[in-house]
Every structure is written in structure tokens, then in C-alpha cells.
């Protein structure tokens, strides 16, 4: 009986924890044109929701010189690197590369936030 009760409590606890958090993803994209690197962060459809992460304390939009600068800044908000890949385009004399870093973080689900209010 005690073993069954303990198993049931563990199952319920893990179920509640999985409902409390969801994994969300974003992408850091970097290009290099004419020796100047451009870096942007894409949050998908919810870009306005995360826009505050790309502003300084005065509300001014941040620009990042390198992808590592962007990742270091976003790590302060709990983002972690998941995967990377490169897209190469062009022919023999003009080749351009676009670097993609997939990042993610745990976030409380919208349902849980609604229940707490």
C-alpha cells in the first residue's frame, strides 16, 4: 500500500512540474557582408513578448557586434544554446555564409500564469 501511494505521489508531482514549464525556442542569426557582421535575434510570432530582452536599461534597442555578444546577453535571461548550423550560398567567387544558433529556455506555461492571477 505504501509503495503504491509513493508511486502515485511521484507521478502527480512530475505531472505538475511538466505542466508548470514549457520549453521555448529562438534563433540568433549572423551574416557577414563586406567585412561587417550583422546579428539579429528572432523570437518567432511572439517577438514583441521578448523585445524587452533586446533593450538596455533606458529602453534603447541593443545591437550586437557578434553572435557571442548576443548569446552572452541572452544567457542572463536563462537562454541556452541548443544547436548550430550554417547556410552557405553563392558560387566560386562570391560565397556568403549565414550562421544560425538555436537557443531555448524553460518558461512557465500560459495556463499556469492564468491560474495564478
As a percent range, the share of helical residues equals 25-40%
- Please identify the structural class as seen in this structure: alpha+beta
Characterize the quaternary organization of these chains: single chain
Q: Count of DSSP helices?
A: 3
Would you report the number of β strands? 4
Overall domain count: 1
Cα-to-Cα separation, first versus last residue: 37 Å
- Percentage of residues in strands: 35-45%
What composes the largest sheet? 4 strands, antiparallel
Series of H and E elements: HEEHEEH
Order of strands, main sheet, comes to 2-1-4-3
Outline, from the CA principal axes? extended
The radius of gyration computed from the alpha-carbon positions, rounded to a whole number of angstroms, is 20 Å
Rounded mean pLDDT is: 79
Low-confidence stretches: 110-117
Description:
- The chain contains 3 helices and 4 strands.
- The protein is 30% helix and 38% strand.
- By secondary structure, the protein is of the alpha+beta class.
- It has one domain (23-116).
- It has helices spanning 2-20, 67-75, 110-116; strands spanning 21-33, 36-42, 80-90, 95-108.
- It is extended and about 75 Å long.
Amino acid at each position: 500500500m505504501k509503495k503504491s501511494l509513493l508511486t502515485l505521489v511521484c507521478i502527480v508531482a512530475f505531472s505538475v512540474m511538466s505542466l508548470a514549464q514549457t520549453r521555448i525556442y529562438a534563433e540568433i542569426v549572423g551574416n557577414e557582408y563586406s567585412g561587417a557582421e550583422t546579428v539579429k535575434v528572432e523570437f518567432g510570432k511572439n517577438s514583441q513578448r521578448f523585445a524587452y530582452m533586446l533593450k538596455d536599461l533606458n529602453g534603447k534597442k541593443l545591437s550586437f557586434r557578434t553572435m557571442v555578444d548576443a548569446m552572452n546577453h541572452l544567457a542572463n535571461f536563462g537562454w541556452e544554446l541548443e544547436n548550430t548550423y550554417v547556410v552557405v550560398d553563392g558560387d566560386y567567387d562570391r560565397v556568403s555564409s549565414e550562421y544560425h544558433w538555436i537557443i531555448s529556455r524553460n518558461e512557465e506555461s500560459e495556463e499556469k500564469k492564468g491560474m495564478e492571477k
